[in-house]
């Protein structure tokens, strides 16, 4: 197995050049997916796991055979996933110029409207649900209560947001943050609007005590800055401020004030936390389609086996690290874990190809749509949260794609049309 692992490291060399090309030539909206989701939360972990499987608490009970096999197969999954990005980049070689982003008065005007509506909705949400939110318990120094609140929310036994409507405004507030930031970087305008949208976008997710969305929003801002301004002292300051914010957030949610321990836990969580469960799935779960339809639209219409617990819940008892964690609802994993758990070796051969085809057409769709700055920012939001490290079923069933079409694209399109129509009527009456 060690020899096989060494061969894998050698094969990693051509993969690295393709990966580097994808990062260099991709447009703004794919940067976080490539650099953070693939390059930080997946790639380092699968490369080092065969070396630390017997010393890391995250891989307790995992064998050398499992660690090497999963790492090799995951590298194949990653390579296949990069193919559509590579093809699109070559096809649009002279079109993915981030500095060519143009913002119109209509973009800014509509963004102001989206920001106003998002702020208004947040206040409504605070009035209705604040005392049920994890943030309420954290402010009252009740870390256990916050964890239990999060568990109840994830299990849909506690409501802290208006169903469906809340999803739309989370998209609105995120994309306005990116648009006003781009406007500030390109034209040195609308800094105030950016700061307001940034504060409220963080507030949306802090209310749920969700660390990952906050970190991804900040990562997007850093990569947008780098794409438009390149490396300078302001970017270093932004990165430092982001790290301090993340450490503060971890302290508030964990109750642990040991800075060194927190830094270690962040690195451990980011590099190994997103991939560990797929090793346990491969070693302990027998492939079965049971649970494939869990939590999907109209899932109650299907049989009980179809709605059984999915792999990211079934695997929890096999992970020693979570033995005493009674508030954990599910675990994240690179989509290899779900692939193995549902279809075994058959899935390993065919699913990466299917996912690549789906992702290719997704890229084509958003590539055509992003000519408008508003939709470019929607694309940034969409790809930065792409469920490659969360759920295979959300990709295959188009649940994630439909989520952004229904709660993002359609509402924005309607508001854009109304905004344009009302503006014309106003100008007509004025004349």
UniProtKB/TrEMBL annotation:
<feature type="transmembrane region" description="Helical">
    <location>
        <begin position="6"/>
        <end position="22"/>
    </location>
</feature>
<feature type="transmembrane region" description="Helical">
    <location>
        <begin position="342"/>
        <end position="366"/>
    </location>
</feature>
<feature type="transmembrane region" description="Helical">
    <location>
        <begin position="212"/>
        <end position="228"/>
    </location>
</feature>
<keyword id="KW-0812">Transmembrane</keyword>
<feature type="transmembrane region" description="Helical">
    <location>
        <begin position="373"/>
        <end position="389"/>
    </location>
</feature>
<protein>
    <submittedName>
        <fullName>O-antigen polymerase</fullName>
    </submittedName>
</protein>
<feature type="transmembrane region" description="Helical">
    <location>
        <begin position="110"/>
        <end position="130"/>
    </location>
</feature>
<feature type="transmembrane region" description="Helical">
    <location>
        <begin position="401"/>
        <end position="419"/>
    </location>
</feature>
<feature type="transmembrane region" description="Helical">
    <location>
        <begin position="68"/>
        <end position="89"/>
    </location>
</feature>
<keyword id="KW-1133">Transmembrane helix</keyword>
<feature type="transmembrane region" description="Helical">
    <location>
        <begin position="34"/>
        <end position="53"/>
    </location>
</feature>
<keyword id="KW-0472">Membrane</keyword>
<feature type="transmembrane region" description="Helical">
    <location>
        <begin position="162"/>
        <end position="183"/>
    </location>
</feature>
<feature type="transmembrane region" description="Helical">
    <location>
        <begin position="190"/>
        <end position="206"/>
    </location>
</feature>
<feature type="transmembrane region" description="Helical">
    <location>
        <begin position="235"/>
        <end position="255"/>
    </location>
</feature>
